[in-house]
Amino acid sequence: MTTRPFRFAAVRSPRGDGAQWRATGQQVEQLGYSTLLMPDGVHWLSPIPSLAVAAGATTTLRVGTFVLAASLRTPRSAAWDAHTMTVVTDGRFDFGIGVGRPSMKEESAVLGMPYGTGGERLEQVAQAIRHVRELDGDARTPVMMAISGAPKARALAAAEADSIQLAVNPVLPEAELAEVVAGIREAAGDRADQIEIGANIFAVNSELPPEMENFLGTTTKALIEHNSVSYLRGDVSEMADELERRREATGLSYFTVHCYEDFAPVLEKLAGR
């Protein structure tokens, strides 16, 4: 197995006005993150125009969806937006897509879209990927899929995705996480070394906000007790060493950071590694 270099993305949604959002993109770029990722959902601003603004305010920063929920738009519409972003950002867009959280059933209804079964939503993901490949022509929009435990979703990601984010239980033991990664790599066959596989980092040396604990269905205490990959403790050197150990143990190399300011010193320590 090839050891991939680390890559880190900051996860953020616009807060305040346009000037504040542009400043956020510039800060994320200056801190050394490769990518600014934005969640999808009707209770936030729309991700595609928001990310276009962030890309326009920066020079090297990639932007991406984290992730578009298949049930909130048609596959062709999702692909159209993704291809457009690749063109207007000069190739700095990552097309993140997945079947969506359970709450997307209500959000789909708000938009007048059918929610469908898990299998139908996964087929929408597959169609969106096919459409964006057709639209891209000689270009290539990198595809990121967020997947959990469904075997069919893992198989599709192994066959089609450029990067995979594991939306698994955050207290999953490290050995089981490594098994998930190994299974994806085995399914990917000859393209295994071309796929980045990653996970979330939710907090660094601090308590999770109550709304985050509710969203994750767990607590800060549980993350610490299970040595969760999503929680880091210690000084900067200790956290950097722990991430290197985890990369070696699990194969994870792409971390999506929800506490991007707190994590910035660790990112700086790991630059180029």
TrEMBL record:
SUPFAM superfamilies: Bacterial luciferase-like. InterPro entries: F420-G6PD/mer, Luciferase-like_dom, Luciferase-like_sf. Residues 18-206 form the Luciferase-like domain. Coiled coil: none annotated. It holds the Pfam family Bac_luciferase. This is LLM class flavin-dependent oxidoreductase.
